[in-house]
Amino acid sequence: MRKHFFKLGTAAAMVIALSACGSKAPRPSSELALTSSALKNAELAGAREHAPLEFRAARQRQIEADEAMKAGKFSKARYLTVEARADAELARAAADAQKARLELKRTQDNLQGLRRELVPVSKSQ
Question: What percent of the chain has pLDDT over 90?
Fold first, then answer.
């Protein structure tokens, strides 16, 4: 009887051990690639200059994801890559918005200058 329980216990322990190995999260390779791409897009959009805080946050999360990958913590790495990609997309959008604000300001300044030039001409006629 004891032999039977021992064999059953050993089999159960092996099943648990094997299932624990099988449940390890897969490497988030595609997520890392998407994050790198999002960071490059943000940088090309001028995020380093126009949205430095958001860009820095994205870079920091990417670094943390890389460290988690090296440590074999794939679930944590996947989570961090998703955050890094979201931060990178936010940085790109913030940079685009800042560039649009700057362009609007430049256009408004040009219009003001044209108005100043036109006012004396129209008053003298």
Answer: 65
